[in-house]
Amino acid sequence: RSSFVKSDQAALRLMFPEAHGTEDKHRPDLGSDIQTVSVSVNQRLTPNEYDRNVFHIEFDLTQSGLKYGLGDALGVYPRNPTELVDDFLTWYGIDGDALIEVPILGGSGLEVTTARRLFTCVLDLFGQPSTKFYEQLSDFASDRNERLVLERLGSKEGRRQATKRREATVTFADTLRDYPSAKPDLMDLIELIPPIKPRIYSIASSQKLHPTSVQLLVVEVDWQTPTGEKRYGLASHFMANLKPGDEVSVCLKPSVMVLPESNKTPVVMAGLGTGLAPFRAFIEERAAAKAAGEEVGEMSLYFGARYRSQEYLYGEELEAYHSTGLLTNLRLAFSRDGPKKVYIQHLMNDDKVSLTKLLHHKKGHFYLCGPTWPVPDVHKAICDSLQHCLGMAEDESKNLIENWKEDERYVLEVY
Questions:
Q1: Rg of the chain's alpha carbons, rounded to an integer?
Q2: What stretch of H or E contains 75?
Q3: What's the CA gap between 349 and 239, in Å, rounded?
Q4: pLDDT at site 1
Q5: Which residue(s) pair with 60 in the sheet?
Q6: DSSP summary character for residue 257
Q7: Contact 105, 29 (CB under 8 A)
Q8: 31 phi and psi, to 5 degrees?
Q9: Of the candidates 46, 53, 54, which has an alpha carbon nearest to the alpha carbon of residue 308?
Q10: Range list of β-strands (E), 121-212
Q11: What is the pTM of this model?
């Protein structure tokens, strides 16, 4: 169980780490597979006046020695905004500078830290509560009505109400403010609120071209709550505000986005918005192979966004790769540039012959990355191509795509 420690005891542990076996770690609960990297570049790609902040961020790997490959994604451990944490701690009556000693979550040993650092770096204060949290919190409510409401939220009978709160993105902090008589002490609060989990991002670079850098393509997520308050996605907002030199805890996670074993195998890539990220890595990987004298297969990219002038992400790079012939086919769908909306599936419908040639005759691999909504239309476009060019029946074309999925030749990474 957590406990306060006397300031002089904690100070001794921090001043004389060797004598007390103390290590300085951002997240001591995370284990040995976590690396600390520093920001080297953080560049907004969309115009400042545009309503979507899409940015390119690079982390320097020189100190960490982190090695990644295609098929890896990057897990980023975000931190809660300091000003929101301080506001909550002040309201709750917790001294942010108070030194506390807590067991290392999921491990052995103790951590000496401040309440502010714990609520900023470790506890998911602005995450969304589970029904179990409501049930547990009800035990601390001194007001009978609040206790009954919390008990209901934590029960099957209150599932609909709890779902409404989730849809409104109500957080742990919101809930504690909503039911102020339920006021666990600091140590109970630490055990009630879960730790911040990593957010997983497709890597947008190849280490063969960038030996000391890992790069991400991120959109800063924001929305309005039903009460009109503007809120942000924790990780994307955290990264959007990082400056060169800032340190971040990261880890590698497996991804389904893997190039074929042979560099000669054709690939057809379909990316929407930041779904372009893994395909930039694909292109860079093949560029490195080509520079090393290897023969590389055809690469066809379908990229979709709203406006060319504002969201043609890595446009100059893509045009350059297209002009050299590495990117053999570059098809762009900017849905709001013309009088009629054009999406990637419309371009694919126009390319029935080339799609069938690459995916069927040449046994290429197909990849789609981005939001879920185009999945059925893209699937239909490929089915229609097979039916048109090969005389297949509808069921036959669908079965063929299912076979491709089993062979990992039809890969989706959607969210």
A1: 25
A2: strand 72-77
A3: 37
A4: 46
A5: 38, 213
A6: -
A7: yes
A8: 95, 180
A9: 46
A10: 199-202
A11: 0.91
